[in-house]
Structures are given as structure tokens and as C-alpha cells.
Amino acid sequence: MQRRHPLAACEECPLFDPGNAFVPSYIPPHPKIMVVGEAAGYQEAQRGRPFVGPSGQLIKTVLKNYGWKPSEVGFTNACLCRPPGNATPPKAAVNCCRGRLVHELRESGANSVLALGGTAASATLDDNRSITHLRVGPPKPPTQSLAGSSVVRVVPTWHPAYCLRSADNFPALVTDVGKLRESTRPAWEPPSFVVADSEESALEAIRILLQTNMGKPLVVDIETGLDKDVSFDHPNNYELLCVGIGYAKNQVLVIGEQALQAPVVLLRLKALLQNVKIICHNGKFDLKGLFPKLGALQLWFDTMLAHYSLDERTGAPIHGLKVLAVEELGAPQYDLEIATYVPRGGNYANIPRPLLYKYNAYDVGCTWDLYDLFSERMDRNDVRRVHDHMVRASNELMYLELNGITIDREYSNELQADYQKRLNAIESDLCALTEITTFNPRSPKQIKEFLYGQGIRTESTDVDHLVQIQRRIDRTSTVGKFIETLLVYRRKQKLSSTYVVGIRKRMYRGRVYTTYNLHGTTSGRLASKNPNLQNIVRDNAIRKQFTVASPDNVLMQADYKNVEARVIAYLAQDEYLRQLLSNPDPNYKLFNELSDQLYGKGNWDKTGYVRSKAYFYGISYGREAYSIAMEHNIPLMEAKRRYADFLNLIPDVVRWQAETRRKVLAGEDLVTSFGRKRRFHLITEENQKDVLNEALSHLPQSTANDICLSALIRLRPMLKGIGWIRLTIHDALVVETPKKNLEVCRDMMKTVMEEEGAKYTDYVPFPVDFTVGQSWGDL
């Protein structure tokens, strides 16, 4: 078999097989851009030409919108042979095709390369970082093997196929393609900074600022032992290394580590920062880190939250300071200077102080520039109130994070031992089923080997693949029992590792301290990290670990009753739901009434009740009868009949759903009463159903979250001396209070939470349910 391309090492390539389609490059005469992808897809293999499938059409549309003509663009791939199953080409295959790729790029005469995805980026750059990092910033210099050619820059970006699967990344692709055009943005200017690292110099610098900047905005940024852009640990667990203060554009004062050891410096710094408007990037982190030294400070503007109010997409780096500095300001990747001193998980205390102080000054300078940029942009896009709401929340959530919640260590020990005992028993069952005494349920290789011996091939042993296999086999057979037992093992193991062992690992002085993430979801619902307490399972045994700090205290959970249903009723102006939800009886239950309507009064049990909830929340968020039937084990015909019956009860909700879908498909933004926006940047046949379902859930979920968040903002300072808010979970608040203050605390929470609901609308009431106990599991 001859080489498919004379400059490719085909005979050494793992893809050199007649069954793998060969798709040559398409290069017009004198292209200005060469687009490099990964490998051919199905459409390309069928038609023998690159980028003719859906992802090719998408990138061609983006290029066209930037003014590039088809005659100016060539297309190729890192590998010209299609991998089996459309898999990512192995590195060996990319290397075998590299000589061919470099030659084609050289001969094309193009001056720019658009590298789509990580495989293309690694083939055209001398940089092995992920595409997540490589796409940030200006065009990159090409690999040394292209030195002396016409190619002078490479723009790495997401592969359009990935954007078709994950549409929220499409705006980044569009932005990156724009980098192929020369930027007219003015050059970024580094800040001028002064370091005050002695008591005398720090006091003099603070004295001047007290005289000239009282009441004015100041940018504040601290450096501790960790990177706030990637870590969710707490800064007050680390030594304070420096404090940067920006007092004008490109003017920064850095108070150094030695100066911060002097109590008088901290005292004067406190006097300064308590009387200015503080600007930060991720200010909750900075002010939390300063709290042990300076006490309570108030955040006024947060550039991270400002960017999130402008762009609600999520993803770890998208709202980070370094990414925004490079993407929005054109700053260099100045964090590369410190990278050698802080490998992943490294401590910033290892950075030489002059370099650390420069890095801190650059953080401050970039934050000031982003403040200028985003302030104007927020007003133009009418989202300032969203930012201000999140800043108020940030100021209060800081105290929840600082206080944490107590863990019952003795009970947690018992729970861990119990889980281990149960896991050991299940492992024994799996060994018996497989007849392998050393069977390891954590080994994908052993699982595949056993399934293969039972006549079942699978490319993966993840839960989705196992469930698919389970649906087509006899569950009473040996392999059926094996899969069922393995799935139980996986569930128990995940619960143990995440919510028992994981909680214990994060315990500090008898408590855990979650970090609330105000920009972690597109809906605005809070997320949390280390540990994640927003999505913790509804398992009383696991939640019982979280307890009171004193036996004289109790935990009380205040929970908005059917809050999302109430928001839906208002949004839809549905009179039937309004009537049900306005029942003044405190013991009235919405889903009892709906169950009576669907099954006949009293003709239902707990299963029917659960199904009624599934219909309401499932159908209200766009789910169809089929998916509800599968999840709740209902015959499809019955599910369809109940679906139709339920829709007849809520005609106004049905109309609201239709109008919401129309808006989204027409390209209109969804906007909540709190001003939050949800924009869908790319709707395709493949993702349209998911997009519309998310659209239906966005308004009620986001609004319910903000009602509860507004109550937290008011209540946290009001409860001082009465109780402490320990947790917030979407539409509920968990408070610890001395038993003697229980009634006062309950009355205060009831009043404030119901008032915040009434501020949103008086169309329906927003009652609050209360439960009390010694642990979270009792609530």
C-alpha cells in the first residue's frame, strides 16, 4: 500500500488503513488564511473534501461575516485520514502527518493559520498547553518548523464541532476569528508602582492617601499563598503577603510583607479602606483575606461580577482577571513570570518578593482598566443593577464563608466506617457474580473483560453506557445482576468519596467553609466549592454530619414554599395556579391538590404524589411525556394521558411556554425582573431542544434564587446577636441560633423573606416553611 501523501510517514502511522478515509487538503491559489482542523468527519469522508460538514459550514459562516472571501481561505487537517469512530487522532498519527502539514502551510503562501482545537494547535505551535489556555490573548508565533515561511501568526480557538455541542463557547470562537484582522486597540500601558515595605514608608504612603483619596474609589488586591482565579480555598488560611492599592489609572501603591507585620500600619490601612469605595476583581476573596487583619470592609465594585453581568456564560477561566486582562485590555500574560515559582498547587509565598510585588501591581492596574471599561459597557447594556445586586450579596456571603458550619466529627467517623462496610459487602457480591476473587470494581479493564466474557462489548464503562446495556438485557441474568450491583456500588462510592471522605478532608478546626460562587451558573443560581453544598444529596444520614456549634443552639431551615411554581404562576398570569397557591391554610399542599385533580380526590399514594411533582416541574420546564415516563417508570400511554390532563389545568402556563420559545428562536434575550439576562448564541437542530428547555427553566430558577438572595442580604446583618446564617441553598436559608432566640429569629426571617417575595409580585404570596433540629439532617 503506497503512501497517501508523499510527505507523510504513512507507513508508520496508526491510521494507515484502507478502512480509514483519506481526505486531502483544499488550498486555493494564494490564500491569506489556512484553517487547520483535527481530522475529517463523516461528511468530509463521504465527499472527499475538508470542512463540508456542519462544523465546516459554521466556521465558513464566521469567516464570511468577518469579510473573508472563499478564495482567501484554505482548509486542511492535522491528520488527513479519518480515525475510526471519529475519535481524536492519536499523537503518533499527528506526528506522522506533520511534515505534510508544514509543507502545505509553507507552500500555501498564507500569512495566518486558524488552528481549530487542541490537536491543530499542538501541530502548529511550540506550546503543549490546552486549547483553553492557548486561545486566550493575541495571535501566537508559529512552530519553529514554519520559520522563514509566510506564516507569521497562529490563532488557536475552539473547534466549531465543540461549539455545536457546547453552544456557549461559540462567542469565544467568533472573538478569536476576529483576531485574524489587525487590532486597532491602543497598546496597554503597564502601571507605575511604588513598593512600601517598611513601617515608615507604608505609614507615609497611607497618610497621603488618607488626605487625598478619602471617599474616592480605590482598587484593592491582595496576594496570599494561593491564586484566587483558580483556587476556592480561603485566603485567611494563608499569610498575607502584600496589599496593592490603585489610586488612579496606572498608579499603584504596594504595601509589602514586612510593613504588614506592623500593627500601626494595619490600623492606618483599616482607617483608609473603611472610608473609600473599594474596587476589586473577585472582591469577596480579597476582603475575606483582609478580614482577620482589618475587620469588615465593604465592596463597592467588582470587575469579575461586572463581566459576568455582561456575559453570563460560565467556565473557570472566562471571568478570571488574567484572561480578561489579555482578552479585553491587550495586556501581556504577566503571570508567566511567576509560573516557575508556583507550579500547580504551589504557594505564592515562594515567589521572590520584588517579582510578587510587580505581579500584584499589574493585577491592580488591570483591575482599574477593567473598571473603566466595564462601567461604561454596563450602563450601555443596562445591567448595572445586576452587578450591584451581586456586590451586595458578595458582601454578605463573605460572612457565611468566614464562619462555616460545624461538623460532628464523631458521627462522621461512624458514617465513614458504615459506608466502607457497605462498599466491602458490595465488592464481595461482585466477586461472587464474576467468580473472580480479586475483582476490582474500580478497574474499567476488569469490568470490560467480564462484560466481554458475557458477550457484551462496550467502549466505556461509565454510568451512561452501563445503563444503556442494562436496558437491552435480562436484569435477572448474571450480567444483569452484575450491572445493577455495580451501579449501586458506584452510587455508594461517590456518596462516600464526595460527601463523607471529601467533607472530612476539608474540615478545619471542626468546621467546613464552602466558597459561594456568584458567577458559577448561567441562571445566576449560586454554586459552591470545597465542599459543594449547593447540590449536596438529599440524604439525611449525610446531612446529619452538619450540626450546631453548641448544644444550646439549634439549626433552623427557612424554605420558600413552592417558590418556582409561584414565579411561574406570576410569569404566566395563570389564574388556576394563582388560586391554588393563594390558599391561606398553612398546611395546604399544592401537589396534594394537583394529585386530586389528576387521579381523583384521595385516589393516589406517595408514588402518585411524586409523579404529580414530576409533571409540574418537568412539564413546566419543557420535558416531554416520554422522558417523564422513563424516569418514573410510568407506562408511556399513561404518561401521555396525564400529560394532556395536566396541560388542560394550566393553559396560561402553556401559552407562556410558547411565547418564551418564540422569543428565544427569534434571537431575543430572556430578562428577569432582577435584570439578569440569558442569551443563546448558537441554536442548531441538535441543541434546539436543550436550549428551549433551559430557556423555560431560566426565568423561574433565576428569579427564585434572587428572591432568596435578597432576603439573605437583608437578614444577615439584622441577625447579628440573634443567630448566624450558616448556609443558603437556592431557595432556602439555614440559620444557627441559640434556643432562647428561636422565636425571635423565626419571626424576623418569616417577615423579611415574605416581604422580599412581595417586592417581586403580589400576584401570589410567598410563604415560608420552617424546620428545626440539632443537625442539617434533622431539617
Structure explained in plain terms:
This protein is of the alpha/beta class. The protein folds into four domains: 10-178, Uracil-DNA Glycosylase, subunit E; 192-394, Nucleotidyltransferase, domain 5, CATH 3.30.420.10; 409-511, Taq DNA Polymerase, Chain T, domain 4; 536-574 and 673-779, Alpha-Beta Plaits (2-Layer Sandwich). Helices cover 48% and strands 12% of the residues. It contains 28 helices and 21 strands. A six-stranded mixed β-sheet has the order 5-8-7-6-9-10. Strands 2-1-3-4 form a four-stranded parallel β-sheet, with helices on both faces. A four-stranded antiparallel β-sheet has the order 19-20-16-21. A hairpin with a 3-residue loop joins strand 19 and strand 20. Helix 11 (303-310) packs across helix 14 (384-403) and helix 20 crosses helix 27. The radius of gyration is 29 Å and the shape is globular. The model has no long low-confidence stretch (mean pLDDT 92).
